[in-house]
Amino acid sequence: MADSKNKAAKLVGITVPKETNCGQWYVEVVQKAELVEYYSEISGFYILRPPAMHIWNSLRKFFQSHIEGMGVQEASFPMFLSATSLAKEKYGLHNISSVPVAVRPTSEAVMYPYYAKWIRSHRDLPLRLNQWNSVVRWEAKQTTPFLRAREFLWQEGHTAHLTEELASKEVLEILEVYAAIFEKLLAVPVVRGKKTEAEKFAGASWTSTVEAFVPANGRGIQGATSHALGQNFSKMFGITVEDPDKKGSHIHVFQNSWGLSTRVIGVMIMVHGDDKGLVLPPRVANIQAVIIPVGLNAKTKPEDKAKHMEQIQELKTTLQTAGVRVQVDDRDGYTPGFKFSDWEMRGVPLRLEFGLRDAAASVVVTSRRDNGEKGTIPLAELATQVPALLEKIQEDMYTKAAATFESRRLKLTEWDRVVPALDSRNVVIIPFCEEIKCEDRIKELTRSEDQEDENGRKMPGMGMKSLCIPFAQPDGLVAGETKCLNPECQGLAKSWTMFGRSY
Amino acid sequence: MADSKNKAAKLVGITVPKETNCGQWYVEVVQKAELVEYYSEISGFYILRPPAMHIWNSLRKFFQSHIEGMGVQEASFPMFLSATSLAKEKYGLHNISSVPVAVRPTSEAVMYPYYAKWIRSHRDLPLRLNQWNSVVRWEAKQTTPFLRAREFLWQEGHTAHLTEELASKEVLEILEVYAAIFEKLLAVPVVRGKKTEAEKFAGASWTSTVEAFVPANGRGIQGATSHALGQNFSKMFGITVEDPDKKGSHIHVFQNSWGLSTRVIGVMIMVHGDDKGLVLPPRVANIQAVIIPVGLNAKTKPEDKAKHMEQIQELKTTLQTAGVRVQVDDRDGYTPGFKFSDWEMRGVPLRLEFGLRDAAASVVVTSRRDNGEKGTIPLAELATQVPALLEKIQEDMYTKAAATFESRRLKLTEWDRVVPALDSRNVVIIPFCEEIKCEDRIKELTRSEDQEDENGRKMPGMGMKSLCIPFAQPDGLVAGETKCLNPECQGLAKSWTMFGRSY
């Protein structure tokens, strides 16, 4: 973090607009909303604070219950692997005791030798294990909380199947759960699709992905990926079973791996946050509503104030009983205005203001964090209307973000419109031949000046890369006729592919 | 693991009696019941397999819901700490990139600098954070799955309070939750108490503990500890608040830390297991009941068999609907007898046998894992009687273990009876002066030959150490009169203290 940013981070409130300085805006929001603390001991590491852990645990519970229903079991493998198991050039190695060991960047090399040991017969299939842990990747690039950290929390699922068909079915089933996490919990719209050869996980046969979009800078951002590994790893690790249909002959199993990390929290912050700070979708907010007493002042009689505060505690109890995660801000010495800004910065979805006049009228005044809309709710209806309003906020946040993403995903058939579209903060969907070389060339051809990275630094020359080949293909591609949009490419288009500048 | 053990581990079933070779028995049970797999890459590391993770997650859910109710929040701190933060002589250090870093053995040094930053006013208190993670301790001693592993899962709670009284209250509140985990979930009786000066956590003001007992070898085993850190760390890390009663003067906060690790699973295995293998308490068993078809043979008509297997699936559905975690063993090519032994080895609490004659009589035959007791349950009552029987098993397992521990915890007032009591696999409760030097001397005086460690190796000379000063003090100690039982000690007894050979 630059010194100037450190200074800004100490001021109350968010000091820069999201639109013009997305990078610094982000760094301020994550710290001031107390999602993370920078770990000063070692750069690229972050402490996840309670509001961030609440979000992560919400997603974790949702995902865990889904995969349990699918029959996936939980395991825990060691964090270290020996030097011989890891490509030395790729990750940092170090010595503990006399054994050279590395902390896992991912667990294929830790787990698959045991898959080879445990899978002896087709009756041992499917083997489906998931673990929740943290992994370490000694990133050389600029690190950013959630989006690129040297240690991050994730789940990694690793499964083995008898047939390619069974494996493929699971890849897409998991992708749907990931999509639901974005859409239903984080209120973030995503495009489901397949990665191109250039962008797929190197060890995979094919990679499915959910891709999100950051309107403030028009960049695409990968949400989560689910990989069909085919037989690549089973051949490497010797994971075979006897063919149930052909005694004596062996089949290499078909494997999948799939992972969701705390990166998703970064995506959510980027999509929903505004110049006042964080905006949390109600379903993942650790505090969904905050009650703030208003209109009390030096002239208020102590007994009136006491009675009023007592009534606020009753409102809190009513809401808690209704399942609302609610807090009262009864701090002395702070004005209501200060409190409003403070909770807005922290992204609490709903503010409930309650003054003496409101008490007399038997209502609370509501203020939505997502759109600033005000309203009133009769006290007698708090227990039903507040949960309903929170659900409405959740829905509206998704609908708004989906409409934005929709309008900024341009289906183009003229090459000359591509770079201007990117410069106007869109992603594009274009006819594409799906060739690696062509994709490399497209990246070069679409470089332009004055882009900035997630930390607000100018990054001249950021070209677009493919985000995914959407499963929902638009119309208009004529097989054997439509050409790849790259003017230098002579190939035919295989699909509409979504491209964009990206994280 | 010695070669001879490797061979034995490959034979079906447990090959040694628990009583005579507890160490090897344990090593076989944990592997054959598929709780762990030894990690061959690096010694002292173990893979936790689904049945072990099921136990851990049961405890985790229970504990998490209790501490949430207390207001403890979740956080996640980095796994690495810099060399300057860690006593170099104590833990393994290594280099990643250019920064010398170590993997946390525990997180005081990682967390407390941020406590100093976050705690500015008494309004920031109490600060109560817990994290679930894994820690690494490069043990030089012989490692054993669960009981002493170089990496293990745990939770570590770290809290800060304004007063010593508030802090102490929490220490004991947490200890009660730990005790409940042992007693209610693992069916393991524990003695609650305080560690002596010799045995407390070095950084603590005092340490509370729950202590369990392994009847097979008469050794005590520490369950979990909850520490009152006093101001030791707040002075070291400068964690202060302004005294609310005295402007301008500062108070060092009072801290606690408390941890529960996967070691508890090892304690449970040791307490309940028998010569047939693992015995799981129903509340933490991933499979609570297994249905095994019996009496089918080559003469059974295929349509009769199909109808029977269909009925078994119905029984399974009935039980699942009643909340029972049940599995059907419909493997072909295995005799019922083999299956009985297999599930007994895996510790499944309840076996349900179902044959053609049982179907005709509309009953299932039950067989309890804990005591071998047989019975029958009418099909119409499965949904109520199976859950009730599982609860009965849970209770009986606790009652039996508690009676054993009770009878093997000898209150002694004659020194000469101490070593014979230990040799007969008891722990002892004796009048003790609580002095460190005296405790050291007691350890020497009680050494005797022919003890074995948890891996079955002869360990001549294991003396007894203090396990705890039980909170429930027996009668009979006369203040200023009763002497410490150590014949060489001139001191007066301060308490009845529980001593024993131990893990």
Automatic annotation (TrEMBL), chains A, B:
Pfam family, one: tRNA-synt_2b
One biological process term in Gene Ontology: prolyl-tRNA aminoacylation
Catalytic activity: tRNA(Pro) + L-proline + ATP = L-prolyl-tRNA(Pro) + AMP + diphosphate
Coiled coil: none
One GO cellular component term: aminoacyl-tRNA synthetase multienzyme complex
Record keyword Nucleotide-binding present: yes
Family as reported in the entry's similarity comment: Belongs to the class-II aminoacyl-tRNA synthetase family.
Protein name, UniProt field: proline--tRNA ligase
